[in-house]
Amino acid sequence: MARKRVPENPLIVSTGAAAVPARRKSPTATTKRVSRAANVTEAPASEVEAVTAPVSATAPTEEQVAKLAYTFWADRGYQGGSPEEDWLRAEQQLSALSAK
């Protein structure tokens, strides 16, 4: 007659809150995020001048910043990067040009 197999480690169930399985990280796996350095290059002078032609003594307009940020994205081949970084970079370049 066949015998019923009994596990060596008995199953323990708590009577409290719903049980959540414990997460364990393998000692060989690393989960660090690696930030990729964006291929940041300065915009060609012709593009910056075209976008900044009517720059006033005040801050650049949103339209000017948007156009320059779009050119940064286009220069990367419409891939990767961050829209926020492009926007900030465009604002910085336009502000520097308007301050001159």
Order of helices and strands: HHH
How many helices does DSSP assign? Answer: 3
What structural class results from the helix and strand content? mainly alpha
User: How far apart, in Å, are the first and last alpha carbons?
Assistant: 95 Å
Shape: rod-shaped
Number of strands: 0
* Overall average pLDDT: 74
What amount of the residues lies in strands? Answer: under 5%
Rg estimate, integer Å: 29 Å
* Poorly predicted sequence stretches spanning 5 or more consecutive residues: none
Helix content: 25-40%
Largest sheet: none
Identify the notable features of this structure and list them briefly:
mainly alpha, rod-shaped, 100 residues
Topology at a glance:
Layout: H1 45-51, H2 62-75, H3 83-99
Explained architecture:
- The chain has a domain of 55 residues.
- Helices cover 38% and strands 0% of the residues.
- The chain contains three helices and no strands.
- The longest helix has 17 residues.
Provide a compact summary of the structure:
With 100 residues, this protein is mostly helical.
